[in-house]
Amino acid sequence: MSITPEAITTVLEKGRAAGLAASGGKNADYIPYLASVPSDLFGIAVVTADGQVFKTGDADFAFAIESISKVFTLALVMEKIGAEAVHKKVGADPTGLPFNSVIALELHGGRPLSPLVNAGAIATTSLVPGDSADACWKAILDCQSRFAGRQISLSDEVNRSEQTTNFHNRAIAWLLYSAGTCYSDPMQAVDVYTRQCSTLVTTIELATMGATLAAGGINPVSKERVIAASNTGPILAEMAMEGLYTASGDWAFNVGLPGKSGVGGGLLAVVPGELAIAAFSPPLDPAGNSVRGLAAVAAVAKALDRNLFQPH
Ligand code: GLN
């Protein structure tokens, strides 16, 4: 899709106004670092499948990717073992429960259902080939970097904050392990999963990562093929089903695009074949989605008249 600079200015202004009008929410504080990020930061970016980049606000501020990393580790594992193998071992259904739910696991005999909730993401990370935590981590960091089109880095500060408080996720990993659905040493899986959540991305990089999915696996900025085109459909389907956790249905109803949120305040939505929209604003609603991000991305999608279920 080709967008003129005049048209995109209006679209981004609508997104910004909608985001600023959405009040409420609170920074995540169960990870101490996230509570310290200024709540008033707010950025929006759009990257098209042919490589145009547009932004407004604090789109250059680097924030913790958190759960949005789940999408890219899923992509890596699909590349390594095939989409169907991931589907069988992890699943593709919404849990209907919060992202860190233990009950969801118990209800389904230890099968996590979705690679986009913590249990399924830890299981997915445990499927990354590699004979050490560092080897798996290197593959994940390299994958995030190729999606972003530049070298992504771990934040030692975020990682330390998470590694010293991630007891709930460690419990999930042991439950997976006892059910036979953690495919590496469980503490290694949590260690690597925690690192993958602790990288820093800007809103522009996040939109570029999404645009790589929109463009069938080719990064439209670096022009590199990052994943097979055949894996992008299954990834976007997973995002549509569970990308916004318990709000995924409302999001599909209202916006109609595959999306993914993170407790760092990032939110990504993808228009297959055309573009990606990303936003960042730290205060979250009770489901763990950015309040301003939701309003801004929804407004941008509406202004662009893009909704998968409502063809323009
Ligand atoms: N690292 C966070 C966790 O495991 C990610 C959660 C999220 O962004 N929803 O709890």
From TrEMBL:
Belongs to the glutaminase family. It catalyses: L-glutamine + H2O = L-glutamate + NH4(+). Its EC number is 3.5.1.2. PANTHER family: GLUTAMINASE, GLUTAMINASE 1. This is Glutaminase. NCBIfam families: Gln_ase, PRK12356.1. It is an enzyme of class 3 (hydrolase). GO terms for biological process: glutamate biosynthetic process; L-glutamine catabolic process. Substrate binds at S67, N118, E162, N169, Y193, Y245, V263. Keywords: Acetylation, Hydrolase. It holds the Pfam family Glutaminase. InterPro entries: Beta-lactam/transpept-like, Glutaminase. GO terms for molecular function: glutaminase activity. Gene3D superfamilies: DD-peptidase/beta-lactamase superfamily. Homotetramer.
